[in-house]
Design goal:
By secondary structure, the chain is of the alpha+beta class. Helix content is about 45%, strand content about 25%. The protein contains 18 helices and 21 strands. It has a 5-stranded antiparallel sheet with strand order 2-1-5-4-3, sandwiched between helices. The chain has a 5-stranded antiparallel sheet with strand order 11-10-14-13-12, with helices on both faces. Strand 20 and strand 21 form a beta hairpin. Helix 10 packs parallel to helix 14, helix 15 crosses helix 18 and helix 17 packs antiparallel against helix 18.
């Protein structure tokens, strides 16, 4: 029932109707409660709020036996106390309550409501009824809860993320504190507020960061940059920074929200990647240069070409002011090629051979790479080994030297670089020079082999010309003698002399042919040696008897020392005689008329040595290494008085080798005579 009018006041029927309609159609939920706390009447908005409609048992219960002050939900929540105050005559604002009608047997969903309880009194101040007006705040509570959850989630995300979150005023000033910024940089709020955060930016990045930030704050453009930021421990790390303007309903910037993210690892990795890429590009370029140098060195056919090409390539690839190639030639060291920049132009005429005592010789002796800084070079005891001319030698500033080693592991010289344009020599420089040295050493050896082949080809041509001459020489006297015999009127004496000429020349030709057949069989391994006990005294006697005619014809003095009784070896007696005959004939031919030839035999340590010494024309030291090679012969005299094909010593070497022995030649040079020594194993 609607509230009754105060005593003494009457309502016109039309006013009561209007009041009832107003009560029923009011948009606010209204519940009229009696002084005892029972519900007297509810309007349509109340029914709609709680989904308790007129005509239902629950509706009848609410307006019947139900008493607000006894409702468990109202009692437990403390709302019953507010209602008692209202029933006592106080107008009360009731706080928000979460009420579930299911507890009463309803079907509606629980609602969040606030209420105002207003007592209706009579003229005497007595409580007639209490009007309870509800406001449904469920949607607002749910929205506020969702907002709180989002805020909590955002704060949790900020705390969990590695990024530092910050906000500023529309004009870019920092006013709000940022715990994550303080934790990151160690700045206090007072230090980082306003524009104090710039103090934590690296000095080299600070001005750029400040200018970019102010430009974006003025234009409203997104702020995005990166800079190095000082950490709490004083170190600097790269940070990616992004600030976004937040606009209000009018489109004006209300504030800025930003985040600072640590990208130090990524920047460092990118820098390392770029550096690695640059190194690989430099390395690829160097490899291309080394490949080009390899082609240049490989195509050169002479030692001079290789040496000069090598120093030029070393200077270009290693970027140095000096490069030198020094080779060991005949046991002596020579500087074969030099390349210098204009910095050392005044030294280009320097042409003094090392004396074998300096740092060049040290590298060749040890076959070890030497990479020295200037200080290390000057401290090295062997660094100035250039003999009395050391003071004139080009200045050396830092040093990298690599030995040149042939395929047998023997040193043939070195390549050295000095005065690098930029800095000291590196491990990479060393690796490159080692590779170039390997290529160059092979090229030098190939050039030597090529030169040797050319020399052998030349000697072969000379030999063939010599053979033709030697075979043709006997033909003229044979032809002349034959013509005399053909005439038929020659005297008996002339016939005899002609026959002797023919016989002598035929023997000479037969000897030449036999020598050719012998060397052919020996070099092809087609001869079979006897293996019997041989007395060297008897062997020497037989050889002397065969060589005596030539020795006597050239009026030489032959001295044979007594042969030790124990000078016995196992071998082929005929072939050993052949060896000694060749050595005696060689001595006789290359010793001027009236010379001296000595033959001695010695035995020691299981070996017998037979020496044939002469005081003849000697052998040039340059020829000594090839003296036993096929087709090698010392220079002939103009009258070709020595004769022969120059294959005797090659035959000697091969036959002695088949006996398991060795033969050597010694001479101090032209005009000093020669010594040939045959070494065999004794029994």
């Amino acid at each position: 029932m609607p509230p009754s009018p105060p005593a003494g006041l009457s309502l016109h029927p039309s006013s009561e109707t209007r009041f009832r309609e107003l009560f029923e159609q009011a948009p606010t939920s209204i519940q009229i409660v009696s002084p005892e706390g029972r519900t007297v009447r509810v309007n349509k908005a109340w029914e709609q709020l709680w989904q308790i409609h007129e005509g239902t048992p629950l509706h009848a219960y609410i307006l019947g036996d139900y008493r607000l002050l006894d409702d468990p939900q109202l009692v437990e929540s403390g709302i019953a106390g507010y209602l008692r105050r209202a029933l006592a005559g106080e107008s009360v604002e009731i706080p928000a309550l979460y009420y579930d009608v299911v507890a009463l047997g309803g079907t509606g969903r629980a609602r969040w409501v606030t209420a105002r309880a207003h007592p209706i009194k009579d003229q005497a101040g007595g409580i007639l009824e209490v009007m309870l007006m509800h406001e449904d705040i469920t949607d607002r509570v749910i929205a506020e809860k969702a907002l709180r959850e989002r805020e909590q989630r955002f704060r949790s995300l900020v705390m969990a993320t590695s990024q530092t979150v910050w906000s500023t005023t529309p004009d870019g000033r920092v006013l709000e504190d940022s715990p994550t910024w303080r934790a990151l940089t160690g700045q206090s709020y007072d230090e980082w507020k306003e524009y104090g955060w710039l103090d934590a930016v690296h000095p080299d990045d600070r001005e750029s960061a400040r200018r970019t930030w102010l430009d974006c704050a003025a234009s409203g453009a997104v702020y995005e940059t990166h800079y190095r930021l000082r950490q709490r421990d004083g170190s600097y790390r790269w940070m990616a920074v992004k600030g976004v303007p937040i606009a209000d309903d009018d489109g004006a910037v209300r504030e800025w929200i930003g985040a600072t993210k640590d990208i130090h690892a990524m920047v460092t990795a990118q820098a390392e990647l770029a550096e690695r890429l640059e190194r690989e590009q430099r390395h690829s370029a160097l490899l291309a240069k080394v490949a080009q140098a390899s082609r240049i060195l490989g195509s050169a056919l002479s030692t001079e070409e290789i040496a000069q090409g090598l120093v030029e390539e070393v200077r270009a690839i290693l970027e140095v002011h000096q490069a030198v190639v020094s080779l060991n030639v005949g046991g002596a060291q020579e500087i074969n090629a030099v390349s210098m920049s204009d910095k050392y132009a005044r030294y280009r005429s320097y042409d003094v051979k090392p004396d074998g005592s300096g740092i060049y010789a040290e590298v060749c002796r040890t076959n070890q790479v030497m990479r020295l800084t200037q200080a290390q070079l000057e401290a090295h005891p062997a660094w100035k080994g250039f003999g009395k001319h050391a003071a004139q030698h080009p200045a050396i500033r830092g040093w990298l030297a690599v030995p040149l080693v042939d395929r047998q592991g023997q040193n043939i010289g070195l390549i050295q670089a000095s005065d690098k344009v930029d800095g000291d020599f590196t491990e990479q420089d060393e690796a490159i020079l080692v590779q170039l040295a390997t290529i160059a050493a092979n090229s030098f050896e190939n050039a030597r082999l090529y030169g040797s082949l050319k020399e052998q080809d030349r000697r072969k041509d000379e030999f063939l010309a010599m053979l033709a001459h030697e075979l043709r020489n006997p033909l003229a006297p044979i032809a002349s003698a034959a013509e005399l015999l053909k005439i038929g009127i020659a005297s008996e004496e002339r016939v005899r002399r002609s026959s002797e000429v023919i016989s002598r020349q035929v023997r000479h030709m037969t000897s030449l042919v036999n020598d050719l057949l012998d060397i052919s069989r020996v070099t092809r391994g087609l001869i079979q040696l006897e293996n019997v006990e041989v007395e060297l005294g008897a062997t020497i006697h037989s050889a002397v008897e065969q060589s005596r005619p030539l020795i006597e014809a050239r009026e030489h003095a032959l001295v044979v020392a007594p042969v030790p009784a124990d000078a016995r070896v196992m071998g082929d007696p005929n072939r050993l005689v052949q060896v000694l005959v060749n050595l005696l004939n060689n001595a006789a031919k290359y010793t001027p008329r009236g010379g001296r030839i000595d033959v001695t035999v010695s035995c020691a340590a299981g070996q017998a040595q037979i020496r044939v010494r002469d005081n003849g024309i000697g052998i040039d030291k340059a020829l000594l290494p090839q003296v036993f090679d096929l087709f090698t012969q010392a220079e002939r005299t103009p009258d070709r008085s020595q004769g022969g094909l120059g294959i005797g010593l090659a035959l000697v070497k091969n036959v002695v080798g088949l006996h398991g022995g060795s033969v050597t030649a010694e001479s101090d040079g032209p005009g000093t005579g020669s010594v040939f020594t045959v070494t065999l194993h004794t029994m």
